[in-house]
Amino acid sequence: MESFKSARRTTRSARGEIHSRPSSEPEMATSEEIAGWIIGRLPESWFEQAPMVTIDRDEILIIGRLSAPDLADDVDTVTKAAAEGGRISRFREETRDERMRMAREGQQHFGRAISWGAEIGDTQHVFTNLSTPVMTRLRQAERTVLDTLVDSGVARSRSDALAWCVKLVGTNADDWLLKLRNAMESVETIRRQGPLA
């Protein structure tokens, strides 16, 4: 893993000239560097294990596993879910200031919003999550699919229908998308090891 440099990163152009990125410009860090920074920056008492860190171009989502509330073995699922939700709410309130401080630092370094969530057992809550508009051009057949979802009441709007379609593809194509992401990471690793790196 490359070392983290917050102020400046030096790059070499195809002609061999050296350029420095101004300190005001966000760091172009790898997923590994971002996850490492987050894990190193987190208070050790927050989560039972290293959190799940999901990164895209706009956002870094951190979801940590909290310790389960102490309940009787024969407690029903409704009580268990309510206790887990209560524990997550308490964590959210007690850590709010520190999470906001860390999110501001991370956004300065990486140029992405940082969002938070927590989970216990089967209960998961995402506290803050970026909702980013995405411009797209669709032909009539594709628009008809969205309009059918809206007209049938599955979605409230074309935007909502498109988000629903993306979730559906993501759910049904998890293995394929994972292979694609792994292949992209391999290409990025090879690119960083190249002669112009």
Short description:
The chain is an alpha+beta fold.
Number of helices: 5
Largest sheet: 4 strands, mixed
Total beta strand runs: 6
Measured by DSSP, the beta-strand proportion falls in 5-15%
Distance between the termini: 14 Å
Element-by-element helix/strand order: EEHEEHEEHHH
Strand order in the largest sheet: 3-4-5-6
Shape label: globular
Radius of gyration using CA atoms only? 21 Å
Mean pLDDT: 80
* Overall structural domain count: 2
Q: How would you classify the helix and strand content by structural class?
A: alpha+beta
Helix content: 40-55%
Low-confidence stretches: 1-23
Describe, in plain words, how this protein is organized in 3D.
The protein is an alpha+beta fold. It folds into 2 domains: 1-132, no CATH class; 133-197, no CATH class. The protein is built from 5 helices and 6 strands. It has helices at residues 31-41, 77-110, 140-151, 158-172, 174-192, and strands at 10-12, 18-20, 52-55, 59-65, 113-120, 123-126. A 4-stranded mixed sheet has the order 3-4-5-6. Strands 1-2 form a two-stranded antiparallel sheet. Strand 4, helix 2 (77-110) and strand 5 (113-120) form a beta-alpha-beta unit. Helix 3 crosses helix 4. It is globular and about 55 Å long. The two termini are 14 Å apart. The model is unreliable at 1-23 (pLDDT under 50).
Map the helices and strands:
Elements: E1 10-12, E2 18-20, H1 31-41, E3 52-55, E4 59-65, H2 77-110, E5 113-120, E6 123-126, H3 140-151, H4 158-172, H5 174-192
Parallel strand pairs: 4-5
Antiparallel strand pairs: 1-2, 3-4, 5-6
Helix pairs in contact: 3-4
